[in-house]
Amino acid sequence: MRQEAALLREARDSAELTNAVGLHARPSVKLTQLAKGFGARIEVSTSADGPWTDAKSLVKIMRIKAVQGETLFVRAHGADAVMAVNAVTDLIRRNFGED
Amino acid sequence: MSGEPKVGVVIVSHSIKVAEGTADMVRQMVGDALPLAAVGGNPEGGLGTHVELIHAALQRAWSEAGVVVLVDLGGAETNSEMAIERMPATQRDRIVICNAPIVEGAIMAATESSGGSPLEVVRHAAEELMAGR
Predict the structure, then answer these.
(1) Cys-Cys crosslink for B35: which of B8, B22, B86, B87, Cβ 3.0 to 4.6 Å?
(2) Are strands A71-77 and B67-71 parallel, antiparallel or unpaired?
(3) Model confidence at A7, in pLDDT bands (50, 70, 90)?
(4) What is the SS3 assignment for B7?
């Protein structure tokens, strides 16, 4: 039981930024707000090997300046890591609910 | 809006247009989940800042979680400090002026507040803007 929980504590996935403006101000706010709803540490990167950015920090997320067509890699550590990664990649795939 | 109180955000500009425009951006980008007040100009409708008007804005945006104040130029800060002095002693220590650009700082602070972060974290989010450049 304990071991199973431990196995679920890490998750990662990626999704392409398909919305027109990429990771601009408004999408960044949505990503940050969503990330804050999870207990897990959530990080994103434009490369599979990082550098990783704290998804709960709007200032840091906006500094990534990722544009349309770039892939956003998402990883999470914590009890709700799987749900967190799923929610974040889902938001990206839904174009952040915009355009 | 539910659960714990969220940190309030007060925007103080010499121009009511700047203050209200900034508040519009906060509402549209971040939402209505936090207490927000915008104030600017003098009572005659001109440019300036006014202690009484700022004091009223602090009261509108007051939250048990505290309030962060974003200001533009010099007088906005000193008048905000005087307005904070007029708040009850039990509230004053939970009202802080951020060393951050007014528009960006308001968005950063509001986003942090909407996530339920405490006062010092909200303030840090706004001030982090200047620190990392």
Answers:
(1) B8
(2) unpaired
(3) low
(4) coil
Confirm whether B2 is domain-assigned. no
Q: Is B1 a domain residue? A: no
Closest C-alpha among B5, B64, B60 to residue B38: B60
| CB-based contact B125 A59, cutoff 8 Å | yes
DSSP conformation class of A36 = H
With CA atoms as reference, report the closest residue to B10 among B51, B47, B57: B57
Does B105 reside within a domain? yes
Question: What confidence tens digit (pLDDT) does each residue in B12-54 have?
Answer: 999 999 999 999 999 999 999 999 999 999 999 999 999 999 9
Q: What is the pLDDT of residues A26-75, one digit of tens each?
A: 999 999 999 999 999 999 999 999 999 999 999 999 999 999 999 999 99
CB of A94 less than 8 A from some CB of B: no
Domain annotation covers residue B3 = no
| CATH entry 3.10.450.50 includes domain A2-97 | no
Query: What is the token pair recorded at A52?
Result: 């990783």
Beta bridge partners of A86: none
pLDDT tens digit sequence for B45-80? 999 999 999 999 999 999 999 999 999 998 999 999
Range of the domain at B34: 8-131
A51 contacts on B by Cβ (under 8 Å): none
Supply the ipTM of this predicted assembly: 0.74
How many cross-chain Cβ pairs, A to B, lie less than 8 Å apart?
33
Domain boundaries, chain A: 2-97
